C-alpha cells in the first residue's frame, strides 16, 4: 500500500501547544532573535510564567509594555498558532510538577568552578532528563509511523550531518543498513550533494542539525528535495533554515546555552528521536529485521571471545602454583 505524506514542500511542521516542548525552553531559544517589543514579552513571561493563565492577551500586552498584535507574533515566533495554545501549554507545563514555583527553577543553571562533583552530576542528569521528557512530548507519533513506513520501503535513504551531528548520522545509518534498508551517510558536502542530486520520489533524505543552521546540511537536504526525495529535518529549531527546506520536521528540545549542561543534552534528544524512528522502521518488516540481525550477529560471532564461566574466572584469578 502506498503511503503519502501530504505536507507543503517549503513549510516546517510547527508543534501546537498540546505537544509543547516546554514554553520556557522555546522562549530562551528564540530570545536572541527577538525585537525589542518581543524581548519585553519574553522577559515578562520568564519573570511571571503563570501570567497568561490569569490575563487576557490585551492585559498581558499592557503589563509587558507591548501591543496585543506583538503578543500574537511572539506566540508564532516560539512555535504556537496563537495566545490560546500558549496558555494551554503553560497550564500543561505547570500541571506536570507541583514543585515548580518558577520556570527559573526548571531551566537549569550553569555550573561553576567550585561546584562539587555531586552537584555537577545532579545538574547534568536533570538537564538530560528534562531534554528527553520535552522531546518525547513534542513527538508526533502518527507522523513518525508514516515516516518509518516510508523509510522501510524506500529505494534509498540519505542521512546528512556535519560535526557532532555526523556521529549521530553514522549511528543511524549503521542501524538501518543492518536491518536491510539501503542507507548512506554524508558529512562531506561535495559527496553529499552528489548523492542528493540522484535521489527521487522513492528516496528519503534526513538532515540532522541541532541548530538547524549548518549550511552544508541545509544544502544537501535542499538538493535532495529538488531531486524529489521526501526530506526530513531533525533539529531543535522548528523555524530554522533546515526546517524550511524539509517536508517533515522533527523537533528536539535543548536550551543551547554555553557551559550549561543543557547544551550537552542536545544529542540525547536527537538520539531519542533516531532510536524511536529506527525501532518503528524495524517493526514495518519484522521478519526481514530479525533475519538480518541474526545473520549479521552470526557473521561477527567468531570475532568475539566466548563468555567465560564463573568457575573459569575464579580459576584465572587464583595464583598459579609453581612446580619445582
Automatic annotation (TrEMBL):
Highest rank taxon of the organism:
Bacteria
Molecular function (Gene Ontology), one example = DNA binding
A biological process (GO) of this protein is: carbohydrate derivative metabolic process
Q: What is this protein called?
A: MurR/RpiR family transcriptional regulator
SUPFAM superfamilies noted in UniProt: Homeodomain-like, SIS domain
Region of interest: Disordered: 301-324
Q: Does this UniProt record's set of keywords contain Transmembrane helix?
A: no
Q: Which Gene3D superfamilies match?
A: Glucose-6-phosphate isomerase like protein, domain 1, Winged helix-like DNA-binding domain superfamily/Winged helix DNA-binding domain
Which source organism? Lacisediminihabitans profunda
Stretches assigned to the SIS domain? 147-287
Amino acid at each position: 500500500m502506498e503511503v503519502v505524506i501530504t505536507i507543503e514542500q517549503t513549510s516546517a511542521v510547527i508543534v501546537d501547544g498540546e505537544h509543547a516542548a516546554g514554553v520556557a525552553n522555546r522562549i530562551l531559544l528564540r530570545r536572541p532573535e527577538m525585537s525589542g517589543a518581543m524581548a519585553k514579552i519574553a522577559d515578562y513571561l520568564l519573570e511571571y510564567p503563570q501570567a497568561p493563565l490569569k490575563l487576557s492577551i490585551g492585559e498581558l500586552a499592557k503589563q509587558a509594555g507591548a501591543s496585543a498584535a506583538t503578543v500574537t507574533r511572539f506566540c508564532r515566533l516560539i512555535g504556537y498558532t496563537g495566545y490560546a495554545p500558549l496558555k494551554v501549554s503553560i497550564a500543561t507545563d505547570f500541571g506536570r510538577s507541583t514543585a515548580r514555583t518558577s520556570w527559573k527553577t526548571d531551566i537549569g543553571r550553569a555550573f561553576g568552578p567550585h561546584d562539587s562533583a555531586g552537584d555537577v552530576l545532579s545538574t547534568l542528569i536533570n538537564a538530560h532528563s528534562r531534554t528527553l521528557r520535552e522531546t518525547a512530548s513534542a513527538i508526533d507519533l502518527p507522523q513518525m509511523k508514516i515516516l518509518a513506513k516510508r523509510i522501510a520501503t524506500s529505494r534509498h535513504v540519505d542521512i546528512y550531518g556535519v560535526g557532532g551531528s555526523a556521529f549521530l548520522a553514522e549511528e543511524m545509518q549503521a542501524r538501518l543498513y543492518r536491518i536491510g534498508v539501503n542507507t548512506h551517510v554524508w558529512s562531506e558536502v561535495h559527496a553529499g550533494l552528489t548523492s542528493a542530486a540522484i535521489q527521487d520520489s522513492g528516496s528519503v533524505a534526513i538532515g540532522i542539525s541541532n541548530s538547524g543552521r549548518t549550511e552544508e546540511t541545509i544544502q544537501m537536504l535542499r538538493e535532495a528535495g529538488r531531486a524529489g526525495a521526501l526530506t526530513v529535518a531533525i533539529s531543535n529549531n522548528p523555524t530554522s533554515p533546515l526546517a524550511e527546506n524539509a517536508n517533515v520536521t522533527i523537533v528536539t528540545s535543548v536550551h543551547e546555552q554555553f557551559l550549561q549542561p543543557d547544551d550537552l543534552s542536545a544529542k540525547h534528544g536527537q538520539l531519542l528521536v533516531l532510536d524511536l524512528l529506527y525501532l518503528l522502521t524495524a517493526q514495518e518488516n519484522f521478519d526481514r529485521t530479525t533475519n538480518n540481525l541474526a545473520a549479521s550477529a552470526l557473521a561477527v560471532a567468531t570475532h568475539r571471545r566466548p563468555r567465560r564461566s564463573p568457575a573459569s574466572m575464579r580459576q584465572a584469578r587464583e595464583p598459579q602454583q609453581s612446580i619445582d
